[in-house]
Amino acid sequence: MGIYKTEPLKCWGKAKELRLGVYEGIKKARDNGTMIVAGGTESAIALPAGFDMDFLGGEPYGASCAFAGIQDPSWNRGLMEASEAASYPRDMCAYMRIGIGSLLSDKFVFGGKYPVPTFNLQTHICDTHGKWYQIMSDIEGVPYNCVDYVPYEWETENESEESKRLKRVYMKDQMLDVIDWMEKVSGKKFDDEKFINAVNWECESTSLWAQCCMVNQAIPAVMDEKMMYSLYIIAVLMRQQKAAVEFYKVLLDELKDRAARGIAAFENEKFRMIHDSQPPWHNLQIFRYLEQFGAVSIGAHYSFSLSGGWAYDKEQDKYLPAKAPKEAGVTLKTREEACDWYSEWLLAYQTLLRSLRYSGRGKHKRIQDIIDNWKIDGMMIHLNRGCEGTAVGQMELRRYLADRGIPALTYEGNLADVREFDLERTIDKIDTFMETVGLTKIAK
Amino acid sequence: MIEDFKKIYENRHNYMKAWKAKNPDWKVLGYMCSYMPEEILYAAKVLPIRWLGGHEPQNVTEPHIMGMFCPFCRDVLAQGLLGKYDYCDAIGITHTCKHINQAYESMILHRGVDHFFIPTPSKMQDKQALPYYAGILKIFKEQLENWTGKKITEDDLKRGIAIVDENRRLMRQVYETRKADNPPISGLDSMYMVTASQMYDKQEVNKIIADVIKNELPGRKAKNDPGIRLMILGSEDDDTAFINMVENCGSSLVIDDHCTGSRYFWNTTEPGNDLMSVIADRYLKRPPCPIKDMPNRTRIPHIQGLAKEWNVAGAIVIQQKFCDPHELDKVAIVNGLKAVDVPTLYLEFDVTVPIGPFRIRVEAFLETLGSEDLF
Ligand code: SF4
Ligand code: SF4
């Protein structure tokens, strides 16, 4: 018997159905020759939603391939090797290498051939983003465009309003140009109403996910991080769709109900942890291993923020769920208004993407916010060789935590390249860490 | 004298300390990447100098930077943490790559220096980049005014532009002379010239370059036999030991595409009324670094053009180990050179490069280039 009651999530099946539906849609589009747009899923995915299209996002696709490697390691290795055989260096972004390898070997992890898109559209955030889909387009021979994304600085930097205005206008104007470009290269008419709806839904679903994360401040936590991966993915894949909003509304109600009834994600929660960076998707069992000690990872700046819209509240000195247009009393009527609002949403509230650009002091503030408000006892940092975007600042984060006496465990790995992950060594590191924080394995 | 470039490069800190003592009304700002808008700094009486590595093994950056970040950012941070650049009053970066960003952040966290970050656009080809960047440079100008307590006038800006453009024009002139069958200046001395321009007062360096052009280069031959003409390109590179080795193996480096070389000075500003736009426009139009080259690939025709005009038989493409920006362009660049029949040798650099093994590879490469002539 554990300390807390636990029960499965009711909307688990719905999450799975939605997730698979995205890839089914892409497969159908590939087979019917209808429009597919590809790009990073951190990109402005509401932008091409002015067309009837299916969106293939590179990061969740890479994670799916890494996950598929659990059943058949040759699958994910094969893609990496295909990319290396074509001279793409081994230390570059592992998601990107999976995408390149998948395309070059013409294999789609969900079955059949790799779906070549009508065009690639990317936003450029970390060093890799904009170049990734330039390379994909080189190989595919399809048009390519990108939107330069210069996020607002962290609150620690006191950025001027003029600087923010310039960034917002820059992004908005690029978006407007990209809409014209998409019409030109696809030969299709862009539907403003569809686009405006997509912007509203994207803001709403990401705000709702942030609200779901807030519920996890409860003790015991209602979600563990491994569970969150299956839930936040809806926003990663399809946040611009109404179905995502509906899903998160149901999830939020369910989580609140669990919190009210004291239902835990993990029945023996004793030591609350957060994780940094994407996990090694091919070895998620490390999260289950923590549980043997009564430790549970209940979130991350990554899983809270990749799918969440977070606004900094100066008075409370806290990050809180950002308000979507309707909640903020705004009605978006035109393409221009939607681009403007969308730019503000991405630049101001997409805090994970901000940390891909700026490491250091601002990210420390956000991590401290999570530690304080989610009542965190320790942190686990994945020194992720597969993603320089999230790796920036990690060593300094470790020092920051050490200076404040916050226990931190670091382990090396790679989000998607299993060859760079040593399970035995990671388990050893977890054992040592648990010993230092005084946790022993719970007797079965 | 050509040797002066080397003297400045090798004694950069002594030069700067002496310079500072002579110029008490100026401040010094250290920057790490060649996108820093130096015109505005000269206008503000803030001397911009580029931080480069020390090319010596060090053990101070391990707690700050992950092993998979490039050796250049580690070396530069090491110099900063070891206090080698303590005569700088501030540091600054423009948005370029994550690795430089990391070195900059660690300097702020652990040395508490004054700092300036310029959120440079990446999609430099986009027409929206100009108004954005001009606006951002205006903010930078105001920040400098607050920092120095002095207004920057239009005349100051014109003076700043003139100093930096003069430096660019002079170096371009020197590079033009390298088109000759037997170039008057070696690749190594050219690298010393560019890096000296980055790490010392351009007003002083301009005088040296002008003198070299007038009095030294005419009729000069860098070597009796230039050997095989090569190009070098890729990540940040001031590995003088490597350059020297290559030029002692029967070849001459006659052109480059490096931020410590031609990319730094290739274009000057173009006339215009709004000086912030004039300066912004110059940086948007310069030969780009890989992560600023999108959505179209403008680097390839530019590099192909250099290879053709400087008539090279082959190219050495170097990459600082783990340098994502240059790795991301690797396949496209190598293919682009292949398309114009320029064979390439691809090498990965670290803080120090193992000259022996690299010599073997360079010699083997030169041998293949030489043997092509035979058949
Ligand atoms: S943030 Fe990481 S995963 Fe995303 S593109 Fe950059 S390197 Fe790849
Ligand atoms: S060598 Fe590459 S990774 Fe390193 S600072 Fe230069 S561009 Fe950045």
Automatic annotation (TrEMBL), chain A:
Alphabetical list of Pfam families matching this protein: HGD-D
- Signal peptide bounds: none
Q: Which Gene3D superfamilies match?
A: 3.40.50.11890, 3.40.50.11900
Keyword terms of this UniProt record: Iron, Iron-sulfur, Metal-binding
Q: Which InterPro entries match?
A: FldB/FldC_alpha/beta
Q: Does the keyword Iron apply?
A: yes
Q: Does the keyword Cell inner membrane apply?
A: no
- GO MF annotation list: iron-sulfur cluster binding; metal ion binding
What family is it from? Answer: Belongs to the FldB/FldC dehydratase alpha/beta subunit family.
Q: What is this protein called?
A: Putative benzoyl-CoA reductase, bzd-type, O subunit
Q: What species is this protein from?
A: uncultured Desulfobacterium sp
From TrEMBL, chain B:
Alphabetized GO MF terms = iron-sulfur cluster binding; metal ion binding
- Which Pfam family name is an example for this entry? HGD-D
Keywords (alphabetical) are:
Iron, Iron-sulfur, Metal-binding
Q: Which PANTHER family match?
A: 2-HYDROXYGLUTARYL-COA DEHYDRATASE, D-COMPONENT-RELATED, SUBUNIT OF OXYGEN-SENSITIVE 2-HYDROXYISOCAPROYL-COA DEHYDRATASE
By sequence similarity, the record places it as follows: Belongs to the FldB/FldC dehydratase alpha/beta subunit family.
The protein, known as: Putative benzoyl-CoA reductase, bzd-type, N subunit
* Lineage, opening ranks: Bacteria, Pseudomonadati, Thermodesulfobacteriota, Desulfobacteria, Desulfobacterales
